[in-house]
Each structure stands twice: as C-alpha cells, then as structure tokens.
Request: fold
Amino acid sequence: MKKHLLSSDDLTADDMATLFATAAEMHDVQRREVKKLPALRGRTIINLFFEDSTRTRSSFEIAGKWLSADTINITGKGSSASKGESLRDTVLTIASMGVDAVVMRHGASGAAQQVSQWIDAAVVNAGDGTHEHPTQALLDAYALSRHFGEGDRLGSLEGRHVVLVGDLTHSRVFRSNVITLTRLGARVTVVAPPTLMPAGIASWSSSAGFATSYDLDEVLPTADAVMMLRVQKERMSGGFFPTSREYTVGYGLTRDRLRVLGPEVPICHPGPMNRGLEIAADAADAAQSLILEQVSAGVAVRMSVLYHLLAGEGTA
Amino acid sequence: MTHQPVLVRGASLLGEQTADVLLVDGVIAELGTARVDAPSDARVVEADGLVLLPGLVDLHTHLREPGREDAETVRTGSAAAARGGYTAVLAMANTSPVTDTAEAAERVHSLGRAAGIVDVQPVGAVTKGLRGEELAELGLMARSRAGVRVFSDDGKCVADARVMRRALEYVKAFGGVVSQHAQEPTLAGATACCHEGELSGRLGLPGWPGVAEEVIVARDVMLARHTGSRVHVAHASTAGTVEVLRWAKSLGIQVTAEVTPHHLLLTTDLLGGYDPTFKVNPPLRPAEDVEALRDALADGTIDAVATDHAPHARHDKEHAFVDAAFGMLGLETALGVVATVMVESGRMGWGDVARVMSTRPAEIAGLAGRGDQGHGRPVAVGEPANLTLVDPAASVVVDRDDSASLSRNNPWHGRTLSAAVRATFLRGTPTVLDGQLVEIGATTEGSLT
Ligand SMILES: [Zn+2]
Reply:
C-alpha cells in the first residue's frame, strides 16, 4: 500500500482484499467485551475536520481508540482561511506536534492531496469537497462483500451489478465508489438526472468502464445492489431539479421501486438520509437494508486502514 | 538624466536585414546597413545574431500597488517587465483601492514615472469599485495626466448588459476602449476554477465552462456594433471565442482580442495534482482550445499577446485549490513562450512577434501615436528608441528564483523556453543589458565598449 490514502485510486484490488481480510478480523473484535487491540499503542492520530461530520469523525475516532492509538480531534469550519492563515501553515503547525497520521476532512476538493505534499505524517482522506471519500467506498464494498458471502466468508463482487443513484456531481461517495467497485470487478451503473451528472461523464464512463442512465426504472430490474446517494438540501435551490416531489418520482427509491427490486437486493446509503426524498422509509428500514451494517463496517474498515498505514515498519 | 548614446551593432531588424542602430536623445538617430560610426562617448552593444524588436507592450499587467505591495510594486513589476523585454505595461485597475478615479490613475502613473523602468499606463475601472453597477469617472480618468484610454473591471466581468452598453457608448467621446473579462457569472461563478469537462468532473472542482466566456464575447461584439464603439476581449481562452471573433471581424465590428502565453501553451490536465500554481482565470483549457488560439494569433483574429501577469504572495496560493488566489506570473517569460510556441514551430516570424507583442497592443491601448513618447513604432530613424534585443538561439531553463518580481507563482519553473531577452531600451536608455537589470542612473558613464 501507498503511504497515504488520498483516493480510492491509490489502492489496487490486492490492497483492497488485504484491507478487507484485516477488517473482517477487526469486525470480530467489535463483538468482544474488551474491544482494545494494542496494535497502535504509542501512535498519535489527529482527526482534522475542517468540515462537520459527526458520523465519519466518530467512526475514525473509535477505530483509532480500539487500536490503542492516541486520537485527537481538531475541528473548525474553514478555520484557516477565515483567520488569514494558509492551509499549509495550519497543517504544518499541527503536524509539528509529532503526529503519525492525519485523518482529514475538508470542504475543498484535493485538500488532502495537497496536505500530503506538505507533511511527513500519513494522510487519510476522510472526504475532500466533492472529490473523494475512499474509506466510505471501502466500507460500502466491504459491507456488500459480507452480504454476498456466506457466514464469515466474504463474497466476491465480480460481475455483480451495482447501481448508484442520486446527485453524482456533488458526491464524493460516488467518485470513490465507482473506482472501488469497478476495480473489484463489479458492473456499475450510475443514475441521475442530466443536471446532476458531472461534466464530461460520457468520456469518463467509457474510459473507466461504468454505465450511465437517466432512467432508474429501466436499470433497477437488473440491479444486484442499490446505493442511494444523499441529495443535499442546499443543492435543491440551485435549479438542478424542479421540485423534491419531481425528484422522488424520477429518482427516489420509493415503495413501488422497492417492490420491483425484490427482497434479496441489498440497499445502501452513506447517510444521513433524507427519508421520503431519495429513499422511502420502507426502503430504509427494509430487511435488505445494509444501512446500519455500513456503519459498523465503517469502524472495522477504518481500523484496518489505520493499521495498515501505521503498523508497518518502525512500529513499536 | 544624461542620455549616453548607444550603438546597437549588427542586430537583425525584426529578424530580417542586419543593421547598426544608433540611439541618441531617446530616438533612433541613425540606422544603417553599412557600418555606423559610434560617437566617442557611445556605449556599443554588440548584437551579432540578435534580433531587434520594437519594445514590447503588455496590455494586461497586475502590479498590485496600491494595496498588496507584498506581492508586487509598481517598481518590481516594472523591473520584471523590462527583463521580459517590455517598455510599456498597462496596469490593471483591480488594486486596493481600485483605480476608479483620476487621482488613483495619476498616482499609479507617477509611481511608474518614478521607477522609470517602463512606461506604466494605468487602466481605469469601468465601474466604481469594480462592482459592475455604476460607471466610474471614465472621462476624468481620460482627461487626467495619466491619459487613461483602456478601461476594465478585469478580475470581474461587466456582466450587466446595460452597464456594458453605457460604458461602450461613453468611452467613444475620448477614443477609449473597454477591455472585458468575459465570464458570465451565473454560468461560471466565483468558485469556478477548472475548465468544465471530464477532468473537473473527476477532480470535483467547480467547472468554468467555455460557454461562459463565449456568451459574453458574443454579447459584447453585438453591443460594440450597436454603439459603434471599440471592445477588447481580455485573455481569450476558447475555440468558441475565436469563432465569434472571426465572425465579428468579418462584419467589421470593432473588436480586438488578446491571448495569454499560458493559454497558448499550458493545458487543463496540469490541474490533476491540485497545484494552485496552475490556477488562473480563465482556467487552462484543453488542447483543442490551445490549438485554436494559436491559429487565431497567427492569422490575426487574435490581435495581441498579453501576459495577465498576476503576482501573488506565497501564502495566498498555499490554500486548498478552490480557496487559492487566481493567477500566475508572466512578464519575464512571455517572449520565451511565444518564441517556443509560435516562432520555433515556424508559425510566426519575428515580424509577427513584433506585431502581436508591440505594434498591435500599442495601437489598442492608444500608445502608438504619441510622438517621441510612442510605443510599438517602426524601427526607423526618428522613431522613439523603445527597443528590445532578443537572442533567438538561446534556450533557457526557467528558474522561479531568478526573477525581479516579488512573487514566485511561476508556472514555467523548470521548463525550457526558447529565446532570451538580452537588452531593453526605454527611450534610448538601457533598462536591461546582458539579460540583467541596469541600475537606473548608475550606468550612464560607460567604458563598457
Ligand atoms: Zn481577467
């Protein structure tokens, strides 16, 4: 594995398999009464969150703690720019405290990659703007592998048709997932109204090997898994679609579509959900919903990522 | 200042016939294909193999003074300009405070005079505070000692069609021109920072579609036709803009346009690493656009090369890409880029370089016809001795630390560019010799012959 995890593109299929195997072991730890492993004792991890995300931050924090690392949270919305300090200065100050890894969430695309060029510590991208969220994609793929496996054995995603639906333009989850899923051999179709498809997706999809569609009802019957993406409320006033009602009719996982899907097809959502907009309550709470499993998989996968980035050479 | 005569010996005029050129009292006193004898007190500059051009004129320079003297001052920017072969620059109005009054324009103008390295001609804002709402005092700036003729809200688009129409009408009274930063703000908003296309989609950067430039250029040429006025398109960046220009010119609409060196050579894929050095407005475009811009420059559809020299302090670039400042340096490398892209490839000769980097910019800016103060004039007896001496055979690896600018946001660092400026003369006085700045006032008594 590379030193940093900045993009899903940093991981080979073999890397992913290794991370998943370790994640499965970590997952077992979560069922124990005493959850601590000593693997990262004496290591310091900073969760540097320039943008709020209780969900991702606590997932990383728990992952670090269960590996016995010292984890410190630093939060602050746009803290650097507003004080007139450059991002580089902010991050160098923090890194100079003797840090082994920086888990970073930032509202700007590419911020984690830029930071990785400025500091020595390992950088984990915990979401950068509308770019990527590689650990989210790993946990999604891991949760699906568990679903398709038997007992504790992970199943393969080879040839499975995974359908991603929603605001692709502004979704870092989509960008990381499309890389991760295709690398694991899944067949991927992304569905959105044309206004929520990123620029240039036609050439991108053909080079990256995924399909695009404006028609959810046409795609849904062949899905082996569905991943609903969050529609950000602040986008709704941006003229990307006329009304939330129209969005739901066109692209929501409604009760009717749930019926078309059948009871075997797993449903994912990275959360937080807009119930009734992109996903009906019935679908969110259905037996086939993996949404809560995604959350617990998130801790296991992040333990695995931190372990592989930090417990390598030079570890006590 | 004493005018020590200078004899430029054996230079090739615009890359063609070889001549000796004698500069006395700010003008070209003698020009001969046979050997010209140097007066006893003259400095002789041996120019064998070098090309003599009229001094370059930059239509689009950001000097940052007043307001951001940590990034550039009139003096340091002038020095960078001279090193790039320029004898006149137009200083954009988006300083702090904005150059939107006669007093502000005169101040920039006199700072330029005081530095004495190039002629600094202020550009006046089109609207007060660059807010795009009310016209600035265009007439008072025109009548001021600075004699402003070019008006621009550069950095921002004059987006309101009615305001643009009034500006175009108003400047007709004094032969002014409006230089438009064409960026329709509802199509490419303030955060737009990457050419809209596959790469912006993958990188998750706010897209800046070419059409946001093209709709404004199309609108403005129609307004220029309607008002019978002159409009100038700053930093044209797309093939679509070129098409509109070609069409408008075919109708006889008074439109001129400039292209930057970086849009002639760099492409959008440089943004793949999120390096803010390459963040510029308008953004770097794909190769097809670059190719169209080169064609348009060669065939005259685009009139001029302008640097959009935009110095920034380091900490203004060391932000996340979308938060970092727009702009890159350009004055010291512009000629090298044009030589590399256009001359080396055989698409243009040195006479064409003189046209797009001196003659046409001076005409557009109204600097060509002012007697012995003029720029972009022919290299001929009696003309002002604003000249640049270029080594066409040189090849230079750009080093960002070898710069007269206060800033280091240089996109060319580490690249090899063709040709090099060897000397620059402002009204017969060398500002640059052997590629190095001449300390003004300290070099008039010479025995360097
Ligand atoms: Zn501009």
Remarks:
- Chain A is about 40% helix and 15% strand.
- Strands of chain A lie at 44-49, 70-75, 101-106, 122-128, 161-165, 187-191, 211-213, 225-228, 267-268.
- Residues 193 and 214 of chain A are 5 Å apart (CA to CA).
